[in-house]
Amino acid sequence: MQSLFPEKEHLNPQIFDDSTEEMLKHAQSLGIETVFDKQAKSKCNFGSNGVCCKQCIMGPCRISERSNTGSCGANADTIVARNLLMMVSRGTAAHSSHAFHIASTLLKTAHNSTSFKIKDPQKLLSIARKIKIDTSKGIENTAVLTATQAISDILSDKTTMKFATSYYPASVSENLQNLGVFPGSVGKELLEAGHETSMGTMADHTALILHAARMGVADIASLIISTELQDVIFGLPIPFFSKIGFNVLDIDKVNVVVHGHVPLLSEKIVEFSEDEELLKKAMSLGASGINVVGCCCTGNELLMRHGIPLVGSNINQELVIATGLVEAFVVDVQCIFPNVENVVKKFHTKLISTMKEGRFQSAEHIPFEDENTDETAKKILNAAIENFPKRGKKIFLPKDEPKDMIAGFSLETCVGLLSRINQDDPLKPLIENINNGNIYGIVLLAGCTNPLVSEANHVSIAIELLKHNVLIVTTGCAAQSCARAGLLTPDAAERYAGDKLINVLRALGEISGLGNPLPPVWHFGSCVDNSRVINLISALAEKLGVPIKDLPVAASAAEWVTEKAAAIGTGTMAMGITVHLGVAPPVLGSPAIVSLLTQKSEELFGGKFIVEADPIEASRMILEHIRKAREKLGLSGSAAMTVNDSLPVKEPSKPATIEVETKMPEPVIQHPPKLTG
Ligand code: BF8
Asked: How far apart are CA 674 and CA 253, in angstroms?
């Protein structure tokens, strides 16, 4: 058979984890094309620079040596800025549609018309107090008012989003208001963006970029709505031990993969996977049980609240099916490659779509409404069980065992843990350790895994920064990369954390009851849960009384792929956080836009984009950014460091300032009720 990978170079053995590479070879042997082949063949360089315009039928036009404008005279700056605003808008539409769905579900749940419950009334009350909603008329009424406010933030004709004004630090809101980039409702922003980017309307590239920033800020508020209200319905994340890898699929069980982002139905699939009737039926057909595993962010959501194992991130989705072990591949919305339709045709796997926004020509569509999630979950599990006897002989799993990990961090987890040190002022120990340099800075590793970049970048950056005592928090597919590299384990703390950070992790591990250091990389959940990190950073800024832009923090999206990542990155930057991108955004065709995003933005927002493909150089740039922030705040340990400094890792030079109580509380990290493997 002709190889699908005639140019082996892009399969650099260093850039894939062994299991992914093994699965890729297997898929290749079956003649299955995946994103790895397709991207190399399809990528367009004009589009990459952002100078392609498809706004009207005089075109499509592109800026090239032959013409420095489109047919209408739109120059590269206008075209690039318009394209970027449209990209950020689509990402925001995806996130706010998710937020709208969750808010509607909470509203219906409060009216008792779903089978969901208000699982965490305390969280609901804390949200309501934050957005200044009356809580005096009981939980249901508070839920109605909170959900209604969220819906109004998404769809009404307002001038400010309450979830933004209430959650962002005052200094951020004030700066955004002064710049005229504080969002009205998301719907209003989307409407105006659609209008401005239509042919012959906005031709001021600065105004377009400022609108992209405003849209990004609205996007972050949408993330906050989704995360906060999901916690109300499903409960807060709990730190869990779990596993990641293709081998979380179980040869003896009915395997159900849940993939996408909106966890409403998948929560029910997990719940009913333990239903006695269904288990009996599975056993009657020769299976030993039902095994639900997660892909992408739906997977992250279930991991955070139930410890459900992860089978893979965005670049693994086709390969998961190529194991031949998946009875049902159940998708909701976002980041689902249409190619999964082609791959399932080679196996017995049923592709089941469940939401009206995410349909596929040949998938079985089993839609759910909030009112019928129980029935839909059971129907899907039945379909998976009945498919088990049809499993073929083409099954394959890589050699490697799944990797262990600990996940389930959030602002509440951190405060809960730290309150065991200082009950009255839980953030104080964290701040003291940032002040004295035991924690040199905090960096968020976020975003996707990209087949062109592959997986090394998140991991390489994490390892470089950890050596320099930077605490890593992570979300989305980036978190899964780190997990597959074993960075979400106590062993990784001993191996990679710098000589000061390790002390902090050991002390926290002790107070958590883990008996080992905490992992040096903290999994904060799905991409929507980037809001948890924003909330943590906002809490630190408010506690210290400094703007976010002055904190020794940064974010990195080393392998970003999607419009949603563009929206989150833009919003994060506008809030004052410097964001590293490992893949250039489609703006290089306009030096003016490049300058706006990488330089001028720092004057306006305090945050800026750093674009650097090389992970080691990117780490150096991030460290330099943190060093300057520390210097400005007058914190210790601000001397310049290079990533090549070989820092001692094991023995502490100075004890961390975390005092550990002599009486150990109960462990906070839990084993999930069931784990495969
Ligand atoms: O929202 S990291 S590929 S799965 S966009 Fe998608 Fe990117 Fe993965 Fe989750 Ni986020």
From this structure: 13
Percentages (nearest 5) of helix, strand, coil residues in the chain = 50, 10, 40
Q: What atom in ligand 1 is closest to the CA of residue 561?
A: 7
What mean pLDDT do residues 347-369 have? 97
Residues contacting 32, CB < 8 A, separation 6+: 318, 322, 342, 343, 346
| Distance from C-alpha of 566 to C-alpha of 585, rounded to nearest angstrom | 8
**Dihedral sign, Cα of residue 110, residue 378, residue 291, residue 397:** negative
513, 664 contact by CB (below 8 A): yes
Helix axes 186-196, 205-234, angle to 10 degrees: 150
Q: First CA to last CA across the chain, in angstroms?
A: 34
Is the pLDDT reported for residue 90 higher than 80?
yes
Tell me how far apart the alpha carbons of residues 473 and 541 are, in angstroms, rounded to a whole number.
Answer: 17
DSSP 463-494: HHHHHTTEEEEE-HHHHHHHHHTTTTSHHHHH
Crossing angle of helices 296-306 and 205-234, rounded to 10°:
40
Q: Are 180 and 604 in contact (CB under 8 A)?
A: no
Which residue has a Cα nearest atom 6 of ligand 1? 335
In this prediction, residue 672 carries a pLDDT of 55
Measured in Å, residue 58 CA sits from the centre of ligand 1 at: 35
- The residue to mutate among 304, 335, 337, 581, having the most atoms of ligand 1 within 8 angstroms of its beta carbon, is 335
16 CA → ligand 1 middle, Å:
18
Residue 497 Cβ inside 6 Å of ligand 1? The answer reads no
Residue range 367-388: mean pLDDT, rounded? 97
Q: Which domains does the chain have, with CATH numbers?
A: 74-234 (1.20.1270.30), 240-390 (3.40.50.2030), 416-632 (3.40.50.2030)
Q: Is the dihedral of CA 502, 414, 582, 549 positive or negative?
A: negative
Closest to 298 (Cα-Cα) out of 242, 350, 341, 260: 260
Tokens of 169: 């630090």
Q: What was the pLDDT predicted at 484? A: 94
Q: What global pTM score does this model have? A: 0.92
CA 584 – ligand 1 centroid, Å: 17
Cα angle 362, 368, 373; round to 5 = 135
Centroid of ligand 1 to alpha carbon of 130 (angstroms): 28
Q: What pLDDT score does 670 carry?
A: 64
Query: How much distance in Å is there from the Cα of 317 to the middle of ligand 1?
Result: 12
Q: What per-residue confidence (pLDDT) applies to 374?
A: 97
Identify the CA nearest to 554 among candidates 639, 630, 637, 492. Answer: 630
Classify 609 as helix, strand or coil.
strand
Q: Which residue do the tokens 């390969």 mark?
A: 319
Distance 566 CA to ligand 1 centre (A): 11
d(CA 207, CA 522): 37
75: which DSSP letter?
B
Q: Is 297 in the pocket of ligand 1 (CB under 6 A)?
A: yes
Beta-ladder partners of 579: 555, 609
Mutate to test the pocket of ligand 1, among 39, 88, 296 (most ligand atoms within 8 A of CB): 296
34, 24 contact by CB (below 8 A): yes
Whose C-alpha lies nearest to ligand 1, atom 2? 448
Q: Is the CB of 314 under 6 A from ligand 1?
A: yes
Pocket of ligand 1 contains residue 287 by CB under 6 Å? no
SS3 track for 259-306: EECCCHHHHHHHHHCCCHHHHHHHHHCCCCCEEEEEEHHHHHHHHHHH
Count of CB atoms situated within 10 Å of the CB of 73: 10
